[in-house]
TrEMBL record:
Keywords from the UniProt entry: Cytoplasm, Metal-binding, NAD, Transferase, Zinc
Free-text comment about domains: 2 residues (Tyr-60 and Arg-63) present in a large hydrophobic pocket are probably involved in substrate specificity. They are important for desuccinylation activity, but dispensable for deacetylation activity.
Active site: H113
Family indicated by similarity: Belongs to the sirtuin family. Class III subfamily.
Residue sites binding NAD(+) per the record: Q95, N96, V97, D98, G179, T180, S181, N205, L206, E207, A223
EC number: 2.3.1.286
Species, as recorded: Tsuneonella litorea
Binding-site positions, Zn(2+): C121, C124, C140, C143
Protein name as it appears in the record: NAD-dependent protein deacylase
Length: 236
C-alpha cells in the first residue's frame, strides 16, 4: 500500500444497511422492485411525481424523518477516520442519500444520488437544507415559490457531479467499492474506468456482486467489520 496516495471510495446501500436503512430491493422471481411496500415506479421516478406528487412527497417525508433517527455504524466511523487521517487525496462517492457519512465526521463526501436532507427548488434551481416535511408545499427560502421537491436522483434522472467523479477516478491509485450491487450504471462502470486508468481495485461486500469479476480483490462480510479492518491496514 506504500505507493498509494489517491483513493476513491464508492459506497452503496450495504454501508447504511447495518444502521437500519433500507433501500429498494429487486423483486424476487422477476416480480416488481419494492421499497417500503411501494413499487419503485410509483415513488422514485419523475413520472410518478408528475402523476401523484402527494404520494411521492409523503413517501420522502417519511424517509427523511426516519433517517434522522438512525445512527452511523462502524463502517461510517472507520471511513470518517480515514478521511481525517489520510494525507493524500480522498473522495468518498456515495450512492446513499442519508447523511450518515457526514454525521460520523467524514468531510470529503460526494452524494451522486442527492440527499434526503436537501430540498431542490425546481423554480430557481437552488438547494436548501431541509429536515421537515414537503407535503404542505412550503415556500422556497430563496425565491418564495412553492416548487420544492426532494433533492434525490430518481430513476431515469442523471446522477450528480459525474465530471468530478470521473476526474477523481482518473487520478486514483486505489478504487474501493463498499456495499454496492455493481448492477446500477453509471456507478457499476467505475471499477472498469479505474482499472483502465491504472488504479488497484478492491471490493468489500456482503456477498459477491455482479461486478466482482472486475476487482483485483474482493473481501466478503458485513461492512461494519470489513471496513474498519481495511482502514486499519491502509493507515498502518
Ligand atoms: Zn426557489
Amino acid at each position: 500500500m506504500s505507493t498509494i496516495r489517491n483513493i476513491v471510495i464508492l459506497t452503496g446501500a450495504g454501508v447504511s444497511a447495518e444502521s437500519g436503512i433500507d433501500t429498494f430491493r429487486a423483486g424476487s422471481g422477476g416480480g416488481p422492485s419494492l421499497w417500503e411496500q411501494h413499487r419503485v415506479e410509483d415513488v422514485a421516478t419523475p413520472e410518478a411525481f408528475a402523476r401523484d406528487p402527494e404520494l411521492v412527497l409523503r413517501f420522502y417525508d417519511m424517509r427523511r424523518e426516519a433517517i434522522q433517527a438512525k445512527q452511523p455504524n462502524p463502517a461510517h466511523v472507520a471511513l470518517a477516520r480515514l478521511d481525517a487521517e489520510w494525507n493524500g487525496e480522498l473522495l468518498i462517492v456515495t450512492q446513499n442519500v442519508d447523511d450518515l457519512h457526514e454525521r460520523a465526521g467524514a468531510r470529503r463526501v460526494l452524494h451522486m444520488h442527492g440527499e434526503h436532507l436537501n430540498a431542490w427548488c425546481t423554480w430557481c434551481d437552488k438547494r436548501s437544507r431541509w429536515t421537515g416535511a414537503l407535503i404542505d408545499r412550503p415556500a422556497c427560502p430563496h425565491c418564495g415559490e412553492r416548487a420544492l421537491r426532494p433533492d434525490v436522483v430518481w430513476f431515469g434522472e442523471m446522477p450528480y457531479r459525474m465530471d468530478e467523479i470521473y476526474a477523481a477516478i482518473r487520478k486514483a491509485d486505489l478504487f474501493v467499492s463498499i456495499g454496492t450491487s455493481g448492477a446500477v450504471y453509471p456507478a457499476a462502470g467505475f471499477v472498469r474506468d479505474a482499472r483502465r486508468c491504472g488504479a488497484a481495485t478492491l471490493e468489500l461486500n456482503l456477498e459477491r456482486s455482479q461486478g466482482s469479476n472486475w476487482f483485483d480483490e474482493t473481501r466478503l462480510g458485513p461492512a461494519g467489520r470489513l471496513v474498519p479492518e481495511w482502514v486499519d491496514e491502509v493507515l498502518a
